[in-house]
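Format notes (please read before filing issues)

Several people have asked whether sequences and structure tokens are stored in separate files. They are not. Every record keeps both together, in the order shown below: the sequence lines, then the token lines. Line labels are part of the format and must not be stripped during preprocessing.
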Amino acid sequence: MIIMADDIVTQKALMFGKYDSSEVVVNDGGLAKYIDLTPTNVPHSGGKHANRWFGKSKLSIVERLINNIMRTEKYTGKKMKAYKAVSQAFDIVATKTKKNPIQVLVEALENAAPREEVTRLQFGGISVPKAVDVSPQRRLDIALRNLSTGVVNASSKNKKPIYECLADEIILASKGDMTSFSVAKKEEIERVAQSAR
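Then the structure lines:
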């Protein structure tokens, strides 16, 4: 999108050249601080935030999704392949839902982020499971990890390409559907935590 103002031409940054991230709304107050929606054309920072505290919260949420897909068996270190897969998945999400795919991704992450999990406490010689609240940064990390793990598992079992599996997973997770791998995993984590209260 090109904006003309007094003979100065400025171009608005659109994700993949198509999607505006400035209109995306994060409804989960805890996650809002950690989901970066800064407008950018290409979600690739070159790891400039890598060794800083909470540096990953300064990365674009789309780049974090690409990086998580890149950590799986077939896409290890192949950022361009993961980038193209996410770009094609966003096109599918846009056509199926008639919404901004970045907004659909944010809704999917909100629905896939667990609020409670189990940790082990040592009392003398025995370890006891105890339910604890999850920090917002870890909630987002778990949601992204489960989303990408579910996509890779789904694409390895059948002939569907990974971008179609990613689009399906994002759409199902945004609706809170239990057939989504990431939402089912979240429900399982919270159910185990509830029994360990």
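For reference, the curators noted about this record: The first strand starts at residue 2 and ends at 5. The CA atoms of residues 28 and 78 lie 32 Å apart.
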